[in-house]
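Title: Comparing notes on inverse folding

I've been comparing how different people in this forum approach sequence design from structure. To keep things fair, I'm posting one structure and asking everyone to reply with a full sequence. Here's the target:
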């Protein structure tokens, strides 16, 4: 909408206080339209139907506290945080580097246990209340989805088999790196923990530290070779996620010891690989080479970081 920039507040999915919330005032109503980031962040409501994008979320006041708006408040705010991560860390202006409008839709369909980037926008279900609560309530989830958009404009990793698992892992990695940056007090190497199984504590959709907790592989020799889930993109991502965990936090896996270098360097190395070296058909082995080269470019060929990347991939059986 055409209006004036405003700064409001709101309540999120977990009844978390959200502030500041960048909104637009137009004709006496406030809209979840943030004009301060790139060409804007726009958050919509699908009203439990499946036509997109739905209706731009509005409120009579600049306090978005109504229950019906909690998913939208988090989707909007967390998209802004993810924008801020890419802009402040890599000077990347939105997912395409040129300020592309960021669109999110919440309340998609009914009892929808999914979130996705549809090639043009982010889409969030409300969950069925048992497996998931509204999925935009997790910062790692929102950053995961927006990172799919970054990947699509960079390496454009094909969403199947090894390139698809790399695509998925890159989204999990940046979901986690963004969580460490903006939710340091509760950051972890779990994915979706805030919105997964409200009746069970301590679990998550995936674990980077221990993929096996969810039955996902953490070693190349144990990869899934079937056709389900586009060739196991959310399963074999565990191999790359484990390597990423070892790169950041360190550890010993399959008798290979890795010295951790922290999440900031993890993000820098994967960002350079995704923007400079990876291609749409990259395999795990080619990703190892891309990441070693990226670490070498950034920190030196004999640096601790480069050694750590090599050891982490050896630890998960990727050479
Ligand atoms: C961490 C976010 C995530 O994995 O979202 C998905 C869900 C919940 C179901 C199916 C696909 C995705 C995805 O974005 O890959
Ligand atoms: Ca997490
Ligand atoms: Ca849970
Ligand atoms: Zn994904």
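Reply #1:
Here's my take.
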């Amino acid at each position: 909408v055409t209006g004036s920039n405003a700064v409001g507040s709101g309540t999120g999915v977990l009844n978390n206080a959200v502030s500041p919330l960048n909104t637009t005032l137009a004709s006496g109503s406030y809209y979840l339209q943030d004009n301060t980031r790139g060409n804007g962040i726009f958050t919509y409501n699908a009203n439990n139907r499946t036509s997109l994008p739905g209706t731009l979320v509005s409120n009579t006041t600049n306090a978005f506290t109504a229950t019906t708006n909690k998913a939208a408040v988090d989707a909007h705010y967390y998209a802004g945080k993810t924008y801020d991560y890419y802009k402040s860390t890599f000077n990347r202006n939105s997912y395409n580097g040129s300020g592309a409008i960021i669109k999110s839709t919440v309340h998609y369909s009914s009892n929808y246990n999914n979130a996705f980037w549809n090639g043009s926008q982010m889409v969030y279900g409300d969950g069925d209340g048992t497996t998931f609560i509204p999925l935009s309530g997790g910062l790692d989830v929102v950053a995961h989805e927006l990172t799919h958009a970054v990947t699509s404009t960079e390496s454009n990793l094909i969403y199947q088999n090894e390139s698809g698992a790399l695509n998925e892992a890159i989204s999990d990695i940046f979901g986690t790196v963004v969580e460490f940056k903006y939710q340091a007090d509760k950051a972890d190497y779990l994915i979706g923990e805030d919105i997964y199984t409200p009746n069970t504590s301590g679990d998550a959709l995936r674990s980077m530290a221990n993929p096996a907790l969810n039955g996902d592989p953490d070693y190349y020799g144990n990869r899934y070779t079937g056709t389900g889930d586009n060739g196991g993109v959310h399963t074999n991502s565990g191999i790359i996620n484990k390597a990423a965990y070892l790169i950041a936090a360190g550890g010993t896996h399959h008798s290979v010891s890795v010295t951790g270098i922290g999440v900031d360097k993890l993000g820098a190395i994967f960002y350079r690989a995704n923007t400079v070296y990876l291609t749409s058909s990259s395999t795990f082995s080619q990703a190892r080479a891309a990441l070693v080269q990226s670490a070498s470019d950034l920190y030196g060929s004999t640096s601790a970081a480069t050694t750590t990347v090599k050891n982490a991939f050896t630890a998960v059986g990727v050479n």
